[in-house]
Write a structure and sequence with these properties.
Length: 313
């Protein structure tokens, strides 16, 4: 059995060798399993690509994919998935925090439960910034509310998937891929394995608030039209509130003819209604913008160079 390990890489000079070494040792413990490791350099500004080239020279099962410009973790994963040829495909991180040595626990869970995908359910997590905690919470709530993710299911970018799942995922060629959305769109037969996240060995997370919000918006608008339905709901709600306010003002004026209707209520109403109109237009504009980029075939990523694995004779 061949397992493909897809690792998106960004500023991982100090951590990537240990991640690859852990994968090699873990797979070596099983005689019936072989591995290919696909390292995707997401245009990292440090020497990550040099480290990948060194690992490719050192091991005969390491492939390197060099992306021309930074496209984000999700797009880097898609680049790796399209180069994966394993019967099963595992996706993990490059920072050493993911306990990749537990991958065979995922495999056993998949076999016992008959799952198509098994995702990590992080029971204990390493030290994380407030941004990361906010991003994880937002992604989970977004998937639950807008993608109908089951309440008791955890989704993460550390997962093991069967070949047919990967084949369906890589059919998605539009901009703004989102792993959790692609997984839940492909199958609901997903299991979980509880794992503990390690402490970061070196460096800091490449995610900031802007990137976390971008990831959240991608998942929100790429695989669900519920935001548009919410916009319609808010529009109807504001129309109802406006109708009620008009009736109340008319009743007040008829009951107390001498009472002056102040401009404050008028300004407040205009601000409220105007804010809701801008919110609805913003949601619609986000969808229209994404449609425009898809029509223009905005690429998920552009590959500059690939270090292939030499086929065994």
């Amino acid at each position: 059995m061949l397992i493909s390990f897809v690792i998106p890489c960004y500023k991982s000079v100090n951590t990537l060798p240990d991640v690859v070494d852990t994968i090699q040792k873990t797979v070596a413990s099983r005689e019936d399993v072989e591995a290919e490791i696909i390292l995707v350099n997401d245009a990292s500004p440090d020497g990550t690509w040099d480290v990948i080239k060194d690992l490719h020279d050192r091991y005969d099962n390491v492939m390197g994919v060099n992306i021309a410009k930074n496209s984000g973790q999700q797009s880097a994963i898609m680049a790796g998935l399209r180069h994966a040829s394993g019967d099963l495909v595992a996706v993990s991180d490059d920072d050493g925090q993911t306990p990749i040595e537990t991958i065979f626990e995922f495999y056993e869970c998949m076999q016992e439960g008959g799952y198509d995908v098994v995702c990590a359910d992080y029971h204990g997590r390493g030290k994380r910034s407030a941004f990361r905690r906010l991003g994880s919470w937002a992604n989970n709530e977004m998937a639950r509310m807008f993608m109908d993710k089951p309440e008791d299911l955890s989704l993460s970018v550390y997962f093991l998937a069967k070949r047919f799942v990967i084949e369906e995922m890589i059919r998605y060629t539009n901009a703004y891929p989102h792993m959790e959305g692609l997984l839940i769109r492909t199958t609901r037969n997903i299991g979980n394995v509880q794992v503990d996240q390690k402490e970061r060995a070196s460096g800091s997370s490449g995610y900031n608030l802007k990137k976390l919000l971008s990831t959240w918006i991608n998942g929100l608008t790429t695989f669900s039209i519920k935001p548009l339905r919410l916009a319609v709901f808010f529009g109807m709600l504001m129309a109802l509130i406006g109708f009620i306010v008009i009736i109340v003002l008319v009743v007040i004026k008829l009951t107390y003819p001498g009472m002056a209707i102040g401009w404050t209520s008028l300004v407040a109403t205009n601000i409220l209604v105007g804010g809701m109109i801008m919110l609805v237009l913003g949601v619609i504009g986000e969808y229209v913008g994404r449609i425009y980029l898809c029509i223009n075939q905005n690429p998920q990523y552009v590959v500059r160079e690939v270090l292939e694995i030499e086929k065994k004779k």
